[in-house]
Amino acid sequence: MLRSIQKIFKRKQIALALGGGGARGLAHIGVLKVLEEEKISIDLLAGTSIGALVGGAYACGISPGELEQSVVGYLSSPEFAASTIRAIEAAQGGRENHFREKIQNFLKNRYQIIQAMFKLGILSQEDFRPMIEHFLPDILIEDTKIPFRAMATDLVRGELVTFSHGSLRDAVAASCAVPGAIEPLREGERLLSDGGTLSLIPASVAKEEGADIVIAVAVDQDIGTEEEFTNAMSIYCRAAKIMAHKLKDYELKDADIVILPQVGNLNWTDFSHGLIIVAEGEKAAREKLPEMRRKLLGCRRWLPLSRVKNLTI
């Protein structure tokens, strides 16, 4: 009888879907800070790209405060200063071009355009690995404190891959492999790249995993533009940006609560703005608190055992 009563009062399952967007995804840390303050317990974390990195760390039990300090530590480290990602950021000089154009400019500036023709990414998995290892422990996904899923794209079959077991670091490395920038991860016959190609914000995956309520955080670029289209590349890049925006809108239909930090004008490599981005995530989450409180009002695990025992049946 007691067990059946507890089942009645078991709360709905809450999932958090964290979207991709490079450095803009540091806003996820600010969102997590607010959720913890509100004591909103997350039953499932699903992440794409930077969302997988931040979500994977939080799923391991690393607090938002610790994550923020890790960001500060990484950005001030010699490893980041000497990294290719930092070099790409510096090469842009604050210009708000599209990612592909920025990569092209970087290659020209660094005389690496010929080299890139024979590589699968500007940044190899070996070079990218220190960043993954800085934020994530070497554990299995099955051993995270909160159930976790990471999204990747199999470039061979053109299919979405949902990591639910195996190496946490490998899963996140695959999910973060931005096409053209970071080398895909080879796993048997699969060639795994950024999950954002097929699932920019994995709200639908969270629903498929059994979540009753999905809180989604999107950190993609703003769709508005004042740029002039002067060549075929600029047209191609603009079309790709529009497609990504529409994919986001489609996926957010499966979300019950949507948080949109105002970081859309920042480049995916602008990690030097890390603390500003975290603050934007916190601000956006606080603005959504009335809606979250309303929709999550009845979401309790069960009544306290003392009250259950005193119920008259």
Q: In words, what does this structure look like?
A:
The chain is α/β, with parallel strands linked by helices. It contains 15 helices and ten strands. It has helices at 2-8, 27-37, 50-59, 64-75, 78-81, 84-92, 99-110, 113-116, 125-135, 168-175, 203-208, 232-251, 274-287, 289-295, 305-309; strands spanning 14-18, 44-48, 121-123, 148-154, 159-163, 180-182, 185-187, 190-194, 213-217, 257-259. Mean pLDDT is 80; it is low at 4-9 and 301-313. The strands form two sheets. Strands 1, 2, 4, 5, 7, 8, 9 and 10 form an eight-stranded mixed β-sheet that branches. It has a two-stranded parallel sheet with strand order 3-6. α12 links the parallel β9 (213-217) and β10. The termini are close together.
Query: What is the straight-line distance between the termini?
Result: 9 Å
- Global Rg: 20 Å
Mean pLDDT: 80
- What is the makeup of the main sheet? 8 strands, mixed
Strand and helix order? HEHEHHHHHHEHEEHEEEHEHEHHH
Task: Give a nutshell description of this structure.
With 313 residues, this protein is of the alpha/beta class. 45% of the residues lie in helices and 14% in strands. The longest helix is centred in the C-terminal third of the chain and has 20 residues, at 232-251.
